[in-house]
Amino acid sequence: MTSFSPRSLQWLPFSPKSLISRLFTTITLFLCLAGSTFADTYDENLLLQPLSGQFLLASFNFKSHGPIQSFNKQLFELFPRSLGQILQYTHTRELHLRFALGRWDSELWGAQPGDGQNAGGTGVELWAWVEAENDIEAEARWTSLNNALSGLFCASLNFIDSTRTIRPVMSFSPTGDFPHMNKTDLFLLHGTLPKEPVCTENLTPFLKLLPCKGKSGISTLLDGHKLFDASFQSMSIDVRPICSPINGHCDIEIQQNIDMVLDISRSLQRKDSPVPRPRDQHELVCDTTKSYASDEYCYPLDNSFDLPWSLSDLFGRSIAGSCPFAVKEPQTPHVCIAAPHDRQVHPTEGTEIFASQDGKQCFILRENQIFDIALPKQEPPTTPLRQEPLLYAERSFTGHGQEHGGVKTVLRNPSLKDSIEVVYLESLPWFMKPYLHTLNARLLPPPLDGDGDVISELYYRPALDRKRGTQLEAKLVIPANSVVIVTYDFEKAVLRYTEYPPDANRGFDVASAIITIPPHRRGSDRRNVPATSIRTTSLLLSLPTPDFSMPYNVIIFTSTIMALAFGSIINLLIRRFVAVDEVQRMDIKGKIMGLIGKVKKTKAE
Amino acid sequence: MDRKCLLVIGVGVLLRLVLFTAFPSLPTILAQRVEISTPVTSYKRLQEGLYLYTHGVSPYDGGVFHQAPLLLSLFSILPASTISTNLLYILADLSSAVSLIQIASSRVAAITPRHVSPRKDNVWPPWAIAAAFLFNPFSIATCIARPTIVFTNTIVLHSIAAAVQGRRGPAFVSLAMASYLSLYPILLFLPLLMVTYDCSNAASKPSIQTFSIVTTVLFTSVLLIYLKLSHILTGSWEFIASTYGVSLLLPDLTPNVGLWWYFFIEMFDSFRAFFLCLFQLHLFIYVPGTCLRLQKQPLFALTTLVGIISIFKSYPAIGDTALYLSLLAVHNHIFPLMRYTFFLAAAILYATFLGPAFYYLWVYAGSGNANFFYAITLVWSIVNALIVADALYAVLRDEHETERPELIGKDVVQI
């Protein structure tokens, strides 16, 4: 416990002016140190898991929790003060923040780590339970939460306004415990920013929230250059209260997760040469069974052996000893690798090997002792573990042109025995106007009894121009080994020219659909399946664009036409007719008019 | 109604029936054309509103449906089959044709109490006017695409038909319905009042003041009844902002044949409110002018206003132009006095054919930009404005020749 003291001191409000406050601080500090039951606990864990296709999943998990009483009194130990104060100011009781890039290839890699609970849609996703008396107050607190988090994480979260906020009804339920709170006072708000490019400036504040701030422990591996070079990466922050069912003590828990999928061969190549270049011919492994195989023609054979790698190869550095806060009794493992059992794993010499559990090999880090893992080249390749996902989901646009379109989502249940119930949630921008009457869920293969009603429950909140987006939530039942195709049509709105982003012809990002599978008991083997969520990729919607260069021209042209019409009609209305020869016109204009009149007359004759 | 009228109507109805049945995908294709369907009349949006309405979601709490609540109740009691809907639209066109025949038979276009045209004997027979409406490609396309402007047009025509027969009640109840459905027919109140007064039974005619006051009260109260009925149907006043608010404030900038959409896409935010007011007021300006100058021929004042509305309303479509052209056909005796008939006919064909092509280039092919379609809408608007102006010239000339018969066939200038 002694290692806590310098940090705790640093974090406490400290006013040197008053002796009383100094005394108070000292007493508080003493209390904190003396009563170990009130202290925060911290765990960190890195799970490495080779995936098919020479990919490596690295899941970093940082978890700390401490008593909610001291959190409420603003006595922060390991809980980051900056975040804690924001949550208290905005009355946020549970917070989930996601930054994600890339696509999780579930066909190749299988189920997402942590049942997809830590993953978010492309860009930024945020949802929170805010305590408020009414909807307006909740909205105001949500706005200030977004603005504060925007500053904290250097992300454009302040752009989550009413058009990007939805209130999901079926998809989310609180993961924390709220025993002392009236459920009607908690408002769930959800916002997405699919266009947000997640980058290093978001990682730095993320690391700052950790007790060791990336200086020691597994977080030393987190380097922006490597993290954002990954094929898929997701950063998540979850804050929630958890209460013990036995004594009713409540803790506040903050969990930070980073999941990244590294392409091993690309990472190794980056190490050899920072500039991407084609592989030399002698490095290629050719498929000699091809008929055209010769010295000149080579059909490259991937995955003919397991690539050799080590942490320092992939991450550019090795782990610089353990984080002091994560060392405790009884010991918990810091780094685990879930390699196939026939794959050799060589940790740095002298590393303490923790008893391996369910096929994983785990290691404990020592303070100030560098740690690395090396896996040698292995031939023939091993088969990585792959867990079949509960559901495959794909979403795409249909149709062409910039006027109308359609969305098609294909949901496939791979299980041969069990049907599953899923909740499908779409949050669409207001300028994409879906037609609910065209919503159709088709079951493949078609059901034998002809009952094609797949959607059992539907919640729909239509968009209002410039005020709010569309929210569509549907509960579907997907029978075993079948596919459900959900389609609907939509219309693309034309925006005012100031509402287009600078790169208007790139298109507008549409947030990922969120598919939630509620916790249930599986029919075939009576096993409890925890809540799982899956996100589709985001979509790029192209809208018709006006010509941005000519607002003045358009104003002038249209006004001219109106003036012309107005002028000619009013002119006819207010002037009276006389015969040409009745007016005396001695000026040039009159002569010309007379001449034209004569010509016309002769023509008519 | 003679045999020729019945024949024309029969062929017109048959043509629509054939188009609906022989080309089942035609209605869907046409309904997606921006020239025919606008956000405030589109059939697809009506279906969406109907779906939401029957499923207990308020269709007015959304940005898609902007049509009047009574339309919802009309379509919700209708059997939900395509055939019945198609028949309803054909019936509406049939009723329009009958109204036009009634208007033409009354000969109010050429003979009013204060004006008798020297060309009154050159008027086309009623069946020709019905044919001009029923076989007008614009009205056929509008009927097949099924926008709700069809109902507004029918009701406006019915109201005029009642007015030329001097039946005040039906005329203004219908006009209130048309105004309720699409707001802008409210501008026709004054000329319709004049038509009705002119055509009322001369024996029992009250003074113009009493007549106007009673009519205004009648019109306003019927309009209020419609609004209250809608309130009862939807349970809230939300529909006002979502129907009339949209026509007035133009939040939906979907392209159409009018002048507003591109102007307000490109408008600077700080001037948006100013120009919205200006564009709306601009429509009102024409009412006193036309009614004063054309007080001897109020039916033509009404026709001119229909034409002006069809150009300058916030969401115009070719259905509005079809209504104007069929009313203009009633005044066919003044066609010989129009000056630019060939030019205008050519220009309207030009805009009709190039409009869809340029829209395709912009939205689908991507080889043109928005200015292509915008240019065509400018041409379309100016051509329509010139038709209105040219017809106005012809009518004024006709009126002038009644006053000074010695000037027939001579050149005149305006001073």
Layout of helices and strands, plus pairs?
The complex is a heterodimer of chains A (605) and B (415).
Chain A: H1 5-11, H2 19-34, E1 41-51, E2 55-67, H3 68-72, H4 81-89, E3 92-102, H5 106-109, E4 123-131, H6 135-153, E5 165-166, E6 186-193, H7 200-208, H8 224-227, E7 232-243, E8 250-263, H9 264-272, E9 309-310, H10 311-315, E10 319-320, E11 335-337, E12 346-347, E13 352-357, E14 360-364, E15 370-371, E16 373-375, E17 392-398, E18 404-413, E19 420-428, E20 432-444, E21 455-461, E22 470-478, E23 482-492, E24 508-510, E25 514-517, E26 520-521, E27 528-529, E28 532-535, E29 539-541, H11 551-574, E30 577-579, H12 588-604
Parallel strand pairs in A: 1-11
Antiparallel strand pairs in A: 1-2, 2-8, 3-4, 3-7, 4-6, 5-6, 7-8, 9-16, 10-15, 11-14, 12-16, 13-14, 17-18, 18-23, 19-22, 19-25, 20-23, 21-22, 24-29, 25-28, 26-27
Helix pairs in contact in A: 4-6
Chain B: H1 3-22, H2 26-31, H3 43-54, H4 69-77, H5 82-106, E1 111-112, E2 115-116, H6 126-134, H7 137-145, H8 149-164, H9 168-182, H10 189-199, H11 208-234, H12 238-249, H13 260-266, H14 272-293, H15 298-312, H16 318-330, H17 341-365, H18 370-403, E3 412-414
Beta-strand residue percentage of chain A: 25-35%
**Cα radius of gyration of chain B in angstroms:** 21 Å
Average pLDDT figure of chain A:
87
What is the count of distinct domains of chain A? 4
Largest sheet: number of strands, sense, barrel closure of chain B: 2 strands, antiparallel
InterPro entries (chain A): PIG-T
Pfam families (chain A): Gpi16 (PF04113)
Keywords (chain A): Membrane, Transmembrane, Transmembrane helix
GO biological process, one term (chain A): attachment of GPI anchor to protein
Describe the structure.
- The complex is a heterodimer of chains A (605) and B (415).
- Chain A has 605 residues and is α+β, with helices and mostly antiparallel strands.
- Chain A folds into four domains: 1-39, no CATH class; 40-277 and 308-375, no CATH class; 392-541, Immunoglobulin-like; 551-604, no CATH class.
- Helices cover 21% and strands 32% of the residues of chain A.
- An eleven-stranded mixed sheet of chain A has the order 5-6-4-3-7-8-2-1-11-14-13. Chain A has a five-stranded antiparallel sheet with strand order 21-22-19-25-28, with no helix packed on it. Chain A has a four-stranded antiparallel sheet with strand order 17-18-23-20, with no helix packed on it.
- In chain A, strand 7 and strand 8 (250-263) form a beta hairpin.
- Chain A is globular.
- The model of chain A is unreliable at 1-17 and 29-38 (pLDDT under 50).
- The radius of gyration of chain B is 21 Å and the shape is globular.
- Helices cover 69% and strands 2% of the residues of chain B.
- The longest helix of chain B has 34 residues, at 370-403.
- Chain B has a two-stranded antiparallel ribbon with strand order 1-2.
- The interface between A and B is large, with 56 and 66 residues.
- Strand 30 of chain A pairs antiparallel with strand 3 (412-414) of chain B, so a sheet runs across the interface.
